[in-house]
Structures are given as structure tokens and as C-alpha cells.
Amino acid sequence: MPSYDAVVVGAGPNGLAAAVALARGGVKTLLVEANDTIGGGARTAELTLPGFLHDACSAIHPMAVVSPFFRTLPLAGLGVEFLQSPHALAHPLDDGSAAVLDPSLERTVAGLMIDGPAYRTLMEPFVRHAEALLSQMLRPLLDARRQLPLMARLGIYGLRSTSAIARRFRTPAARALFAGCGAHAIRPLHCAGSASVGIALALAGHTAGWPCVRGGSGAISSALAAHFQSLGGEIETSRPVRSMRDIPEAARAVIFDVTPRQLAAIAGNDLPDRFVRKLRRFRYGPGVFKVDWALDDPIPWRAEECRTAGTVHVGGTLEEIAAYESSVWQGRTTDRPFVLVAQQSLFDSTRAPNGKQTGWAYCHVPNGSTVDMTDAIEKQVERFAPGFRGRILARATMNTAQYEDHDANLVGGDIAGGANDFLQLLMRPFPAFDPYATPNRRIYIGSSSTPPGGGVHGMCGYWAACSALRRSFGIRGSGL
Predict the structure, then answer these.
(1) What string of DSSP letters covers 59-93?
(2) Nearest-angstrom CA–CA distance, 165 and 285
(3) Cα–chain-centroid distance for residue 433?
(4) What's the number of domains the chain is made of?
(5) Which phi and psi (to 5°) does residue 331 adopt?
């Protein structure tokens, strides 16, 4: 068996990023994946009918575009093309209108009319320093010293609840627009800290849009894998790791792209009991229920703005969204979910046969829920796009159990790598100076359960690799 200096377990975006960073540091690295394909949450497949390409999990990539690590990679040369829509986001209302998050802050302000000045007051300071702020947000909290004034301002607003920030606005449209962004935190909108996610996503929208990837999200994974292999790295699929006995003994560092409880199960015998207890106390968040559609025509939104947006938030008013997201945390669903819709084929002709379209949508559900939300999701879309159901050629659904089967990291359907409650939102998996290291200098964790959390940006894996390079090999990282 070949000798490796480091092993990365799990070939999702973070595992791939960790492997690339180690290989760039001159470390001979093996990347192993339990599934027969790489990519984790960034995979693409024909889920409905032949010729219709659907993103199995992640679909829209604002954080990939602004990722400091991804910016150092030749992604374009490896086939990754980010496709922008005229509007990053549209949020329809029952009167036939829609609120719009535009890549231009000025156009967004103008569209929000009487709430434009309040939106400018909230977002303009962040937009003015967007690159520095987004870079800071994609690193561990305890490394925030580089941009203290900016981070302090973010704290003033971001540590508040989504509902509190949304109520700064007077119109239902502006309130709903921010509520939908904040709901990406996958926690009740009245909870402290949830506004930070809404601000971050709005900022990314004004900075780099909310793009999809030509040909599907799997192109990102394929590009990372190809770059890793060009650096001399090796990938083995269909190779599950159930204990440290499955790791080559010569490896001086092992980075796990898994959740903390999974790390405890795999490596618990090689870690102190006190640390293992911390790993086992890690909290998972709600899951998701997803529907993919093969469509005969585009979704017939009443609001014209929705027809030119890559992402559409379907859920009505601030109050409706808040009520649904609270019910999910209480272990319930209702027949009016907040639905996140992506319509990539409007801007990517490779996704469907000529003249046809795809649709991608999910809603939050309690962790491990087996409730079939297909009808509720489709009724919500039909509410704002009459005639939608008549355009469905085929559908494919995934409940929480099927998501976990698809990717073992999505425990109970949790796509965020863990609950975004106040403490885990600020410092995950738990407060630590180096959240990627363990007491065993050979073992590291670099999944979305570590800072900066969920999303396809690779930064969790990158920072874990920096920790491993420094502690296990005496090599300093690039200092992004």
C-alpha cells in the first residue's frame, strides 16, 4: 500500500478543499470517500427524466464566488462557470408584486421605495467594505481581530433577530425580503443572531450575485478533484472509514469532513473522554424536504420579477415565514411552508432538453421528519404561479432519511452541519481557540460543523488543513 503523509476522510466540498490545501503545502495526501461518487452536497444527477439535470443538494452559490480559498484556484480553467441571473432573488406577494434583491444596491433601494432609505442605512456600510467583511466572516470568530470595526458593526445588527431587523421596514415587501434571507439560518426568526445570516446573504447578493453553475453544482466538486489530482493527490471512492484502524498508519494527520458526533464514533477511542463528551453534545438542526421537477415550460409566476430571478423565496409575509420556521423548531410542519425555489435552467441551457425546464425546491422540516411535503410545497408555488402544476412532467422527492442516505453528513436531513442556535452559530462545534484541532495531534475536523459553517465555500476544510499543516507538519498556511 502506498505511503501517505495525510488522509482526508469525506470528499464533499470541505474535504476536497482540505485535500487541495494539504497537497499545495507539499504533503502527500489521500482523499477517501464512502460513496461511489465524490461531491457530498455538491452533486448533479438526472433525478426525474433523461436529459434533466438536477442539483441533488446545493444549487445556488453566493459563498462559492466570494470564498477566499476558491479565488486562489483555477476553477474557470477546470470548467466551473458561474451563471448570474438579472435578479439574485425575488420574493412574491399575494397582490402579484415581488420584492427583489438586485446585485446593484441602488436598484434594490429604488425597488423598495419608501423602505429604500432604511435598507440603504442597513446595508451600505457593509457593501462599501464587502470584500474585507465577507473574507472575515469566512474565518473563525476568534480570528476577527483583522476587521474589528467592521465586525463590531456587523455584531450590532447581526446579533439581533431577523424579525427585529425586518420590522425596521414599513412595507410587507421589504419585511418579507429580509425575512426570507434570514430564514436561511434555519431557526426561528425571533431568535438572536439569526439576522447575521440574512445580512451575509444579502451582502453576497450585492457583491457577487447568487449564481448557479453551468452544468450543475457537481462541476465544483469535479474541478476541486481534478486540481487535487494535478497536485499529486489520490482519491479512493467506495471506501468508508469506520474507525482509525481504517487509516494508513503512516499518516501524520487525518482531517475528517464529518459531523462531531460522527467523529466521536469513528475516533473516540483515540481521543480523551472529556473531548468525546463535547463532540457527542453537538446539536443537529432541522432537516429539509426537497422536490425536483422536470417542467414543460417555465414556472408561470404572476410577478414578472420572479421570471428573471435564479432564486425565488415562496412564503408570503414576514409573519407567515416566522410562524412556519417556529413550528419546525417545535417539531411540527404546516400546510404553508416557507419554500426556497431555484430555477437554474432559465439561465443554463444545459440543464434540460430544448424548450423544457427544471425546478428545484425545498422547505425546512423537523430533524428526521418523514412527512411528505410535496403537496404543500406545490400548493405554495401554485399560490404565486397559477397553472404551475399543469407544467410538471415528472418529480423526484427526498425526505430527511433519503438525504442522509445520499450524504451521511446530513444527519436527519440537516444540511447546515448542525443547529444554528446562538452558541453554535458563533463558535462551532463548541468554543475553542482552534476549532479544527483535537487533543490528538493527528486528528482534525474540517466539516461544515466547524467555522464558518454551511455553504459551498470550502473554507471549513481549508482552515482545518491550515491547522494540520501547522501542528502536524510545521508548515504555515497561506494566511488568507
Answers:
(1) ---HHHHH-TTGGGS-TGGGT--EE--SEEEEEE-
(2) 23
(3) 24
(4) 1
(5) 85, 20
Sign of the four-CA dihedral 178, 184, 187, 192: negative
Q: What's the grid cell of residue 38?
A: 465524490
Q: Domain of 248: which CATH number? A: 3.50.50.60
State the pTM of this model: 0.94
- Cα distances from 319 to residues 326, 376, 404, in angstroms, run 11, 18, 31
In-domain check, residue 237? yes
Does residue 356 lie in a domain region? Answer: no
Domain presence at residue 192: no
Cα distances (Å, whole numbers) of residue 369 to 56, 185, 301, 323? 19, 19, 30, 18
Which residues have C-beta within 8 Å of that of residue 112, sequence separation ≥ 6? 99, 119, 169, 171, 173, 174, 177
- Residue whose cell numbers read 469506520: 242
Q: What are 203-257's pLDDT values in tens digits?
A: 999 999 999 999 999 999 999 999 999 999 999 999 999 999 999 989 999 999 9
CA separation for the pair 55, 403 (Å, rounded): 13
Q: How many CB atoms lie within 10 A of CB 394?
A: 12
Q: Using the predicted structure, report yes or no on whether residue 14 has a pLDDT greater than 90.
A: yes
Distance CA 162, CA 168 (A): 10
Q: Are 259 and 447 in contact (CB under 8 A)?
A: yes
Domain that holds residue 40: 6-79+213-282+416-473
In a domain, 308, yes or no: no
Separation CA 310–CA 307 (nearest Å): 8
Does a cis peptide bond (omega within 30 degrees of 0) precede residue 272? no
Q: How many CB atoms lie within 10 A of CB 323?
A: 17
pLDDT digits over 134-160, tens only? 888 888 866 655 556 666 777 788 889
